[in-house]
């Protein structure tokens, strides 16, 4: 079987679920162009554990893990089936790489999972399993987690890292959602995208020491770490498609990436979201 691309998508605020904008349009296009996966393994910053844990519910519940948003959001569902078999395959793959991992038989899907999936696979007809993040660990650890998962991507599993290309909620300005993004956000994003295009893995793994405004763009690593898992899980992350859908709330860059040899067929979408 040909490997699937791996994805990193920015899910932004929970309101993305009802305000699709350019990001929702991009995710819908990606879902239409992707080869149909047998299952999805999704990593979100909204599930953090000391060591990797994988949800194994047959029917994952949708978690409305936020507050203070419009009532409409709390009525949304994503009735996808889970995949206990994929959960066990994921744990086995991590353990074979020397990474301790466990099964969580109760974990549902947080908004970092179901919000983008509503656009990627609106019929909720692909089984979904969620893998937790370890935000106390560095990018190189998450890249190695991704490498351990790479056999899954070669076997019909779509690995998705969901986060935010920049994420500083302290400076979020709701009233400026349609205004140009803060300058530092664009400078950070430009540096990161250039290093990605150049295949400069050492600089990317140590981005907090090299990227302009890295700590301001990401006071914590959590929303960028899923990107490194997606990179590591691909058959060749230097083959990539980059999708720039702009900035929301002044500070949330909504870029997405597809990685691997199968990502090259998705580059045509880049022009459609400009």
Automatic annotation (TrEMBL):
InterPro entries documented for this protein: Extradiol_dOase_DODA (IPR014436), Xdiol_dOase_suB (IPR004183)
Gene Ontology molecular function: ferrous iron binding; oxidoreductase activity, acting on single donors with incorporation of molecular oxygen, incorporation of two atoms of oxygen; zinc ion binding
Tagged with keyword Zinc: yes
Keyword Zinc among record annotations: yes
Keywords for this protein: Dioxygenase, Metal-binding, Oxidoreductase, Zinc
Matches recorded under Gene3D superfamilies: LigB-like
Domain Extradiol ring-cleavage dioxygenase class III enzyme subunit B: 35-236
Annotated Pfam families: LigB
Source species, domain of life: Bacteria
Cofactor(s) needed by this chain: Zn(2+)
CDD domains documented for this protein: 45_DOPA_Dioxygenase
Family note: Belongs to the DODA-type extradiol aromatic ring-opening dioxygenase family.
Record protein name field: Dioxygenase
